[in-house]
Amino acid sequence: xxxxxxxxxxxxxxxxxxxxxAVARYRFLKSTHLHLLIAPSVSxxxxxxxxxxxxxxxxxxxxYLPVVLDGQxxxxxxxxxxxxxxxxxxxxxxxxxxxxxxxxxxxxERPSPMTLLHHLVVTDCLVSLAIACRExxxxxxxxxxxxxxxxxxxxxxxxxxxxxxAVIPDGTLTLHYPTPSETLTFxxxxxxxxxxxxxxxxxxxxxxxxxxxxxxFFRDAYGHPRxxxxxxATTSRARAENLRRMAESLTQGxxxxxxxxxxxxxxxxxxxxxxxxxxxxxxPWEDAEQETFTLIQPCRPSSERSAE
Length: 308
What we know:
Elements: H1 14-26, E1 29-30, H2 31-38, H3 44-56, E2 60-63, E3 83-86, H4 88-97, H5 113-132, E4 140-146, H6 147-157, E5 171-178, E6 181-191, H7 198-214, H8 217-222, E7 227-234, H9 237-247, E8 257-261, E9 263-265, E10 271-273, E11 285-287, E12 292-293, H10 302-307
Helix pairs in contact: 1-4, 2-3
């Protein structure tokens, strides 16, 4: 009979604690994410070995994504790469060293494969931003939250407010720009599959975003006083354009929404992410007025705005 006993003898290093804390922070991470986030100066193989030991000793658990082979395209190169999540033991380690002001970390439940793929788009975005902003003077990555953190904030907010039909984005990104000095938050909405109710459901969500923004809900519930844009990230540029055209029918708040794609196909026809540290800041996003912005340049130059 196979034993479930956790083996003894793992001496936790500072880097181990950082790896566990990062998994707790981002919820789902691959070894490639953790390598760039925590230990870019060592080899990926060393990081993978520490993750293996942390998993064996019960601090982390890992999931594998299913791969469908169609006989025409090459399989993804990372098909065997596990996705790491926090366990009860790992959460206890994080909680023991965390500030008393922080919400307690909890073990992560196993998601469905489709839900995990959805969450990993958010992870790619947040991790890529954190890495891309490290060496930049013109922008600083202040904070990023996934929807699990936002659910927790919303529960606290509902203790003092009877808000109905609240909107919870898939992720949030807060960036600081020193020139001019301003801190802006962006919300991420990942549209991977067809939405139940189709365009009508998406339009209703956009209208609710506009109304909640007017009511300062995002400031009061999530602590984001300056919401610059809601990024609708979908599977292709063509689909992003379809969503953008749909948003043209909004009577208010059209400029609140930006549209773009989070993936593209490589030379083998396999979808790959566009949310990488090299590209995340310069990826183009188009609003419903057909104006293009990027995260590195989220506003029109002041000279253009003053000329209007």
